Fold these 3 entries.
Entry 1:
Amino acid sequence: MAISARVVFSLACVVSTHGTRVEANGGGVAVTVNETTGTYVLSVDGATWLTGGRAPLNLTVLNHTTTTGTDGHGSFTTLTLDWGVSAGGTVALETDVKAYSDTELILFTQRWPNGMSHPPPPPPSPPPPTTPAELCSQVLNGTDQTGGAMLAKVPFTSDADCCAACIRNSSCDAWVVSAPPDPNRECYLIRGHRGTRLVADRNMGIVRGP
């Protein structure tokens, strides 16, 4: 449900929006609105009377438009600011500053088109990718993989070299090496591993998948 709030200033008025000036009876109340930040200064006879417009709920101005029209109070010019979380996103708040030329009246109106629920925060930044050095330092000693099939067997030189061979093979998601007391050191590249189990003469690591 949309919700709105309104503030009325009733005096002869002038509205200035970044150099665009609309006068009502040449009066002494002026409102200057910054279309980028939404801040405003309300002055009376040239003296600042009220300032405001701090961005609500961490919103930013997405768009601004100026329109003219006529209603029961007379002819008017309106500056509308659309507020949201990010460019191109949903409008969470609308602010109107309306000045009448036929009567001594300024209207400030704010509308929450989707109610006053807080807009969702922007999504968190994705974590940085894990480097090969970090992956290959995560050795599971005394552990073997389960559920996977052997892609290849390569000569063993070190756990780190076996891990690097797995990273270079896009089909490999885990590696296993035979460890002491197994006298035959081998490096196995694995595809489709699903879990792990404790095995005394195996070391392994995971580079992709669960």
Entry 2:
Amino acid sequence: MASLIQKIARQARTTFKNCGSSPIGENSKGFLENHTQLRNLLHEIRAEDLNIAPRKLDPSPISVPHNPPVTYMHICETGAFSMGVFLLKSGSAIPLHDHPEMNGMLKVLYGKVSISCFDKLDNPPDAASEAQFNPPVQSYQKNGLRRSILRSVGEYTQHSGPCILTPKKDNLHQINAVDGPAAFLDILAPPYDQDDGRDCHYYKVLENGDVKLETGEQKEMWLMEIPQPTDFWCGAEPYPGPQVTL
């Protein structure tokens, strides 16, 4: 009998098989049915299914390159999707970043994470010039400004359903480990590919960065593209779970 992670990989391949070559109609009946099946399978996955034991608090300081704040276990990758596990140390975060023209699913395996999700908005002409920032933004930085909507801030555990992103909705997010180490299974479709216009970009919030959202409330904000933060990098470690073949 196929392992659960093998079933997830096969369903991800079926769901996203055309997303690298043509736009996916989010309202397409076939895509929505496959997407729902994949989401249901992800809801079942647990750390023990991948032979991953929840990590304990690590008192050793984060250092380059021996003790990164985040590590990644690669499971599989095709032209249609990639799948792996991110492991976050206590107090660490994956900074605010985007997924250009990509779909994604994130399922917590252990611990708790807080996820802040944003949508990009179109920039009206001269919008960045008219906006007031504190501290002021230099003229050379204005090309990196993006209007956005902070759509939601939520906490996820192993008992939560998957966090979903699409090319247009919740496409930017920041992920923070809460109250200890955490890990999540991550599916991206299609995978990042700089040569195909899908490079990862990082951002910082310029206004109201400490906003607290009430349920259902959304907040328009300005983001500025920045280099990868110096306090974030991702190490690698071997995947210990069942083999996946496609």
Entry 3:
Amino acid sequence: MRKLLVGGNWKCNGTADFARTFPTNVLKTLSFNQSKVEVVVAPSTIHIGGAQAALAGSQVQLSAQNCSLYGNGAYTGETSAAMLKDFGLGWVILGHSERRHVFGESDQVVAEKVKVALENDLSVMACIGEKLDEREAGQTDAVNARQLSAIREQVDDWSRIVVAYEPVWAIGTGVTASPEQAQEAHDKVRGWLRANVSAEAAEQIRILYGGSVTDKNADDLITRPDIDGFLVGGASLKDAFKDIVRACDEVSK
């Protein structure tokens, strides 16, 4: 079985105090089998240091939510992949729908960022997913394939990439793809990987589900064969995150 992964994306939330107390009071109390599950949380950039200090000695890993397309230099406001690695991080989330649709990052930009992150020895949670009008038009598979194809054009080695399927219409809306909808999309993504990367990659690459994941639906979602964990938004800021991790730790598949 592929090792399950639970990612927690704090987005643009929290305070300096929260970045210290939530890891101490919640994240450090998580109990899970590290050979079966890994947990990676992504505070906002300014809060990474506080969370890192609070999580010292913990089995919970840290991620950034984004990185620059560029290296160090005259790029005001940017944080390079090299800086993230130097700060001790092992992960970065790239291509989240909010980066794509709020900040205008194209498939090409996301793919180039994935390449830069991998070149700097970071593992990547690469996000893909369709908007509501695209789903209603039957374009889910085509959108996912287009976004993945852009990454394939830049990357040969997918061993440090985790794919996060996040239907945009389900992110932060309280509407979750049904377990059947999520499994169908994940199965199609795995099929794309088999056809366009390799059969070995298709079996090894983890595909996470994201989109209003909560402690109420995680137990059912994680039983599906092609759902290898979650990228959690709002619930990653709450005690409920513990139950999402528990669901992954206890599942048999």
